[in-house]
Every structure is written in structure tokens, then in C-alpha cells.
């Protein structure tokens, strides 16, 4: 089974094998990655964490779990410019540095194995965690509790003043949504690190993992443009044009489509 197929198959498990799927994404970029060997490393960490967790109810163990991860050295990767290693799970396991989403995936896997209730929250710009029913969220990078005012401040830091917090920002994320977001992160990281072919692999996976947004088609169109594939670029620009409701963006896309070579169609 190819890595992409193996990744998608992990989503069919109940519950979804989230970490294993993320490791197969890494294997898609590096054939030397062995997801089973990475899982063995993870298993050893699980034993270390479990013996250091306090003897309290499982609903109270999410924050201690995140603090134990931090004690093992897992932190947000702040190396600039950020490299794809920050979102490739094999490197996150060995370097103990990663983006918030990558650290959250590890925490969610530990929580599942230790029967600790925990869910992902697709907060924009900085993935978060939550114990179902709790009045606060948790930062996967250390376990800090975040209440509504903290979330507003985090949103403003990410997107600037005037950005309002909404219920949409606090919705739980499914395993498929998390993998799609991970793929978007990798697409961006590979693009910014001048690896368009690797970014194209991620861009295609984004399309397979759920409904594509205008930005997904535009990102892939830009990669096709960089790789000199005008017909594929046209396909994605046309789909972006169908999806967007922004009149300015529609005008820009129409002009860009007009600059591409026309497709010669054969009549039979």
C-alpha cells in the first residue's frame, strides 16, 4: 500500500489512527520513514508519561499530560524561517519541536491511549485542545489554560486588531480536518522553503481530505505556474473562480485566466 493510501486508510479506523496517518504523510515525503518504528518510540514515551501523571480523575489529566510532554522537551518550533520539519511527525518525535497542530496530534494520541478525554479545536493560526465540556481551552505548547479573553488576545496577535472571536473559531476538529490542516501547513512550509514538488504533493492531499477552499485551488494553481503546467493551472483557477464570491478576486482571476494559453480541443 502506498503512503497516501495508508494515510487515508487510517481515517477509516474507529477511532481514527491520527498519529499513524500523520506518520504516513511524512513517509510520503521520505520513503525511509518507518511509521511502525516511530510508533515504538512513541510507545516508550507513553510509558514515561503515564508513570508521572498524578492519581486524579481522567477528566483532570489533560493539562498534566501536556505539562509532561513539555517536561520531555516538546515545545513549539520557533526556528525562523520555519522548515517543513516542524510539521513532519517523524521529525517532531525526534527533535521534540513542532507546530502547535503537530504537538496537538501527539497529545491527542497519548490521551486516547490513556483514556483521557481530549479533543482538537481548529482555532485559526494556533491549533488548540479542549476537554469536552470544559470552560477553557488548552495550548498544546505547554498546557496553558485559555479562557475567552485569552483566545481573543491570541486571535488579535495572529490577525491584528478588529478581529472578533466567534463560535466558529472554537469548534471541535475531526481527524480528517486535522490532517487537512496539517497538509495545508506542509504545503505552505514546502512552498516557502523552495520545494514546489513537495508542496504539490501536499496540495493534492489537501484536495483528497475534504472540501477544498478557494485558497486551496489558488495555492495549487500557483505551484503549477511555478512548475510551468499551464493547463493544470487553468483547471484550478477556473475552480477558484467558481467558488469565490469576492468581485475583486473574480476580476483578478478572470484576467489571469485570459493570460494563459488556450486549450486546443479536438472534435471527433
From TrEMBL:
<feature type="domain" description="Protein SirB1 N-terminal">
    <location>
        <begin position="63"/>
        <end position="183"/>
    </location>
</feature>
<dbReference type="InterPro" id="IPR032698">
    <property type="entry name" value="SirB1_N"/>
</dbReference>
<protein>
    <recommendedName>
        <fullName>Protein SirB1 N-terminal domain-containing protein</fullName>
    </recommendedName>
</protein>
<comment type="similarity">
    <text>Belongs to the UPF0162 family.</text>
</comment>
<dbReference type="Pfam" id="PF13369">
    <property type="entry name" value="Transglut_core2"/>
</dbReference>
<dbReference type="Pfam" id="PF13371">
    <property type="entry name" value="TPR_9"/>
</dbReference>
